[in-house]
Amino acid sequence: MDIRNLLEKVKNGDIDIDLAIDKLKDLPYEDIGYANIDHHRQIRNGYPEVIYCEGKSDEHILGIIKRMNEKGSNILGTRCRKDTYKKIRNIYPNCEYEELSRILKIENKPIKNIGKGKIVVVTGGTSDIPVADEAYYTAKFLGNEVERVYDVGVAGIHRLLNKLNILKSARVLIVIAGMEGALPSVVGGLVDVPVIAVPTSVGYGANFGGISALLTMLNSCASGISVVNIDNGFGAGYLAATINKLD
């Protein structure tokens, strides 16, 4: 229950003041021992708290989901293990899972499209798709129209140029590449909208787990490019959604 609905219920006499105060105790956050769940985040930032599942036990993930579900929140989990998803689905049948990106979703209320335009996610190669899908599903979950253009890296630049009409239709671009990480610079020179560059850990030895791509993107000579951390598709999708809702 959000604050607006709670106040409406108090105004209409459906909830008494003492019960309303009791419900407000869990705002801005709820301490459940192993986690402080930030129920107030959607009010402050426009989006609910996201569960980073990697490193958390199944018990802890389920406990956080239970509390968020009781509040009626839409729930997004990143880097979720498939076995964990299966346990969650047994309790919450409306839980969905995207295997490549390891994104977990529970939609308790309809997701409204609040984006002002389209976000386009671009990859250099097929090996970058797990990171790209993390960005794609994050941006969609946050209420955006999102389109994918995959495997259009600089080794075959004609593939990218054939998709130029799609790139130019975007309000924000997320460009994902491993190896030497040159693709965001190329895209940045072709469009007049923000480009969010995502280096991936895809590449041979001298790629250094994505550091070579990261340094290329940080040193791009194309203007209008921002860079998130290695393999951080979630961060790119979230940033793109934040930009896309601005007037």
Automatic annotation (TrEMBL):
Pfam families per UniProt: AIRC
PurE domain location: 117-246
InterPro entries: P2CMN_synthase_LarB, PurE_dom
PANTHER family: PHOSPHORIBOSYLAMINOIMIDAZOLE CARBOXYLASE-RELATED, SLL1489 PROTEIN
Protein name per UniProt: Nickel pincer cofactor biosynthesis protein LarB
